[in-house]
Amino acid sequence: MVSTTDLPTKECRNSLSARTQPDVVSDLIEKEVFKGFLYGPFKDPPFQNYRVSPIGIAEGKYSGKKRLILDLSSPHNDDKHLSINDLIDKQDCSMSYVRIDDAIDVILKFGRNSWLWLSTTVNDLHHYVKLDKECRVDLEFWLLFLSSWNGVNMFYSRQFYSSYDMELFTDASSTKRICGYFKGEWFYSSWPSNIAYPDKTFSMAFLELYPIVVSAILWGSQWTTKRILFWCDNEATVAIVKKGRSKCLQIMKLMRKLTWCACKYNFHFSAKHVPGYQNDISDALSRLQIDRFRKLAPSAAQHPMKCPSSSDVMWS
Fold first, then answer.
1. How far apart, in whole angstroms, are the C-alpha atoms of residue 180 and residue 305?
2. Would you place residue 312 in the very low, low, confident or very high pLDDT band (cuts 50, 70, 90)?
3. Cα separation, 164 vs 229, whole angstroms
4. How far apart are CA 139 and CA 186, in angstroms?
5. In 149-160, which positions are buried (b, 16+ CB within 10 angstroms) versus exposed (e)?
6. Neighbour count for residue 258 (Cβ, 10 Å)
7. 235-243 vs 204-219: helix axis angle to the nearest 10?
8. What are the residue ranges of helices labelled H in the chain?
9. Tens digit of pLDDT for each residue in 239-251?
10. CA separation, residue 165 to residues 234, 257, 267 (Å)
């Protein structure tokens, strides 16, 4: 937008990030000119009165990619020289970001089989995004959930409840069995035949996560509105649960099932690394020391709950 003004010319000094990286600034400006987003350079100023706002360099937190930023609010606290932002009519030139409601309105307007263009880590907005198999599985996951969701979600508790405070204990013996205990109810089972740890097919992160998912399937309906903090002494498992994703496809099957339970039963989960954490109750169950288990948990149910099959534990 170009407008004329009688305000005096003002050239603001570039920010420190730009002054210390002149080569980066030149390279970024050259790219913008090549794309047609900027014009110049000019031998002489194209306007009699003009304003030069400070240029800065910002770096992406995760990508590390550098980009130009323009401080249109400079100069600050200068009654003689107003900033570009001060000169812009807020009513005619206000900006609002696209909301999820806007996307919903578009879908309702054009109906099923319409397309929404996605912009993610592509370099330019006209580039295409390729959806791999795992991405399609995630989309199918949410499609299945939304088809049965009633649209109601209760507020979660303000505080986190640790699995220890909830009397929720799980354990996985790498060569024998899995087990879990929750307020008097319990389960234990040998590893399914398709999960044979001796051949090292599955990592300890997978094995530690498996009984946690079983617990969510069996008892998730009792965790409604709670923020649950799973205690675990395996750092890899904790990192995966906190992030919600893993590069391991088998672990992702467990994470999707855990997420499904959280959505279905309306609870939130995270994890905390507690070095050396082990509970005597789950340890007794994993070793099948029933007499010791009865002494540690005298109020436990007489019989264990049936452990779901691996096909029900792992999302498919």
1. 10
2. very high
3. 9
4. 34
5. eeeeeeeeeeee
6. 24
7. 50
8. 16-19, 22-35, 84-87, 100-110, 133-148, 204-219, 235-243, 249-265, 280-286, 290-296, 310-313
9. 999 999 999 999 9
10. 19, 24, 16
